[in-house]
Amino acid sequence: MPKRAEWQGKILFIETSEERPEPASYRLMLAHLKAYGIFDQVAAIVAGKPQDEQYYNDYKQILRDETAAWNLPLLFNVNIGHAYPRTALPYGAEAVLDCSQQTLTSTEPFFS
């Protein structure tokens, strides 16, 4: 796990993969991120689409509940991670998240 300071100003991408954890397990996973101090550092959170959208509403509410104290911008159900269709993300690239338009835009080339 990167040091807390390395998360400063970053967008946190999370997803539940094909494992489809029970909502209680998802809450516990977020509690670990909270305890580590990740939510104190990140600028926003993008949540990947759950496989077959299983537990989508539960995951969405849990993420809202667990991050409410930080008032972070949250974008849900994005086609990243293990769910289909998939989108490749250029990790480490500059990006702009617009929650009102529900867009995530890379502001620099993917490849150099």
From TrEMBL:
Coiled-coil residues: none
Stretches assigned to the LD-carboxypeptidase C-terminal domain: 6-97
InterPro entries: Carboxypeptidase_A_C_sf, Peptidase_S66C, S66_fam
UniProt-recorded name of the protein: LD-carboxypeptidase C-terminal domain-containing protein
